[in-house]
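B., you asked whether I could sanity-check this one before it goes into the benchmark set. Here's the sequence:
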Amino acid sequence: MTEASARPITTRSTAPRRREWLAPAGLILLSLVPVVAGGMRLTELASDPVVSADNARFLVFPAPVVVHIVGATVFALLGALQFAPSLRRHRWHRISGRIAAPAGLLAALSGLWLTVFSDLPASDGQALLVIRLVFGTAMAASIVVAFVAIRRGDVRRHSAWMTRGYAIGLAAGTQVFTMLPWFLLFGAPDVNVRAALMAAGWVINLAVAEVVIRRRDTRGMFRPSDRSTRAAAALR
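And here's what the prediction gave me:
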């Protein structure tokens, strides 16, 4: 075989490897805004800031704020890498999952705690409070269901529910895109519009998650096999 004829084979073999990283890279980019904002909030908390109307609710309960930010950051970044097929076939997937899942659960529970007990801005309103409780509870429940599923060896169910939980957790990134156009065109939204735009971020992510889950089912990614059974048993 000549060198010229070998080049297309090399290109074809490397192309799928490059494409598999498109989804993780996109998810990491989507999470950058909330991750950076969370890092700035942690820096503020560590610098003994002056109490103001904007940061008072964070300074009153710093512990759950720190747990929420750290948990959400770990869940967003490690969770994005779980969408790389080559890593799912590697031991790294199980190890990182044992970190990402508890981090996501802590992020969801601390978010619920802050929603219930902290003084939220007047711009949020009661509708957004209820929406946050619904989706926060759904995120925590999804992670718990996914954990129970993998303990039973049900890899397909585990993957589906972790995908849903991750979609809810990553909504803070999507909400930038649902909120920003309204700000640019109409200015600050009222409480009802703000609640609708925030809810849209969660709904969009869950809709995309369902598409991903159904595509996996169509491709038969989680057909029972000796290998998948052994992988599930290793997590017990």
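One thing to flag: Confidence is low (pLDDT under 50) at residues 1-7, 225-235. Otherwise nothing jumped out at me.
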